[in-house]
Amino acid sequence: MDQQTGAGQKDYDGSIADYTKAIEIDPQNAKAYYARGLMELLLGRNHKGCLDIVKAREVGLPFVSDEIMLQCK
User: Fold this and answer.
1) What ranges do the domains of the chain cover?
2) What is the pTM of this model?
3) Would you give the distance in Å from CA 55 to the centre of its chain?
4) Cβ atoms of residues 3 and 14 within 8 Å
5) Which of 47, 53, 61, 73 is deepest in the core (most CB within 10 A)?
6) Can you tell me the distance from the alpha carbon of 10 to that of 19, in angstroms, rounded to the nearest whole number?
7) Under CATH, which number does the domain 11-71 receive?
8) How far apart are CA 5 and CA 23, in angstroms?
């Protein structure tokens, strides 16, 4: 789902849209929440990113606790 535009510039918003669609299809898709959260963090949208990462942990990815501690203080 990693998309690029122009001269190698990553299309994070496009990736976020793809992950959002995956979550709409399967609201228990922990990997999609995690990936979307990381994209949001990369864009400086920490609140949205942290919400997704917390949700990923709740629905099945317990290992993201370290990521939450680092990014979501």
Assistant:
1) 11-71
2) 0.81
3) 10
4) yes
5) 53
6) 15
7) 1.25.40.10
8) 24
